[in-house]
Design goal:
The protein is an alpha/beta fold. The protein has a single domain, classed as Metalloproteases ("zincins"), catalytic domain (Collagenase (Catalytic Domain)), CATH 3.40.390. The chain contains 5 helices and 4 strands; from the N terminus they run E-H-E-H-E-E-H-H-H. The chain has a 4-stranded mixed β-sheet. The chain starts with a strand and ends with a helix. The relative contact order is 0.19.
């Protein structure tokens, strides 16, 4: 797994988390690239407005590079690789919002950052939470991964 972007000390933790996610999901992330960036409240609000037409601060945004459904395997996207690497997309996290939510939910900032990064990754992999069943699948998958990573609830 290749992690690029402004991760401010969280790069190795996110990389290890994503490796656990790959094992849990049965996916090979060895030739996968993801961009993860921590941004200010103003930056994430601007992105949220521009790409979702929602003019407010949010905690995490995902910008998938593939039109992938959660039940599709990454192996189906071999033709999308560039120089042997599959770019999944971008994840943008508002660190200040994550810090506030960690306090609000009564857990560590580490757990909240991991949750948000993983939430973003799951969106890049085709998971969503629009329908109740899809939301449950995404939440259950996230909790299983976070628990195996050692930052469960």
């Amino acid at each position: 797994m290749i992690i690029e972007g402004k991760t401010f000390g969280y790069k190795n933790k996110i990389k290890r988390l994503f490796e656990v996610a790959g094992r849990v999901l049965g996916e090979d992330f060895s030739c996968v690239n993801v961009s993860v960036n921590f941004v200010s409240e103003a930056e994430i609000q601007s992105l949220n407005k521009k790409f979702r037409d929602v003019d407010r601060v949010t905690d995490v945004l995902s910008f998938p590079n593939l039109e992938k459904k959660c039940d599709q395997r990454l192996a189906n996207f071999e033709q999308e690789k560039l120089d042997g690497v599959l770019f999944l997309g971008d994840i943008v996290i508002c660190k200040k919002k994550a810090k506030m939510q960690a306090k609000e939910f009564g857990h560590s900032q580490k757990r909240e950052i991991c949750f948000l990064a993983l939430h973003g990754l799951l969106h890049l992999l085709g998971f969503d939470h629009i329908e109740k069943d899809d939301e449950k699948l995404m939440q259950d998958t996230a909790e299983k991964i976070l628990s195996q990573f050692g930052v469960g609830r």
